Amino acid sequence: MNKDQLCRMLEHDQGLSCSVCKKESKKHWTNSDGLENDLTKVGDVEPEDSRGYDEYKERGSNPFSETAPLSLSYYPYNCSSVYKCGSCHAVILIYLETGGHGARYQARWAQSGLEITP
After folding, report:
1. DSSP code of 33?
2. Distance CA 7, CA 87 (A)
3. Residue 72 included in any domain
4. Is position 21 within any domain?
């Protein structure tokens, strides 16, 4: 899923919270709490120019903050799958984090209004 397709999906997101996907708790990368099993997978992020494990840190950006842009060519976006909540139509990005003590899925709500970089 490229930048334009993702932008079109974000237009249908409804509300600031949801009892199904709990998007309000996924404003930054955090444990997926099993959403990869509960939501509908609609595709994978298609980076314009994959930067491997480089993180987007333009203009002092913290890639794991709530205000970080959705930087599709950078880690962890470039290895993320795109899921959609059937209840509120939120777009949730999910990737498998394999560093640290064990593999675990991480999720982030792709909120409309955030900058999206290819």
Report:
1. T
2. 19
3. yes
4. no
3-state class (DSSP) for residue 84: strand
Our count of domains for the chain comes to: 1
Q: Please give the Cα distance from 69 to 79 (Å, whole number).
A: 16
Residue 61 lies in a domain: yes
Among 78, 76, 61, 75, residue whose Cα is nearest residue 114: 61
Question: What's the pLDDT tens digit per position in 50-64?
Answer: 999 999 988 788 888
Residue 114 DSSP one-character state? S
Mean pLDDT of 86-105: 93
Print the domain residue range for 108: 3-16+31-117
d(CA 62, CA 14) in angstroms, rounded, equals: 27
Q: Is 50 within a domain?
A: yes
| DSSP-assigned states of every residue in 88-109 | T--EEEEEEE-STTS-EEEEEE
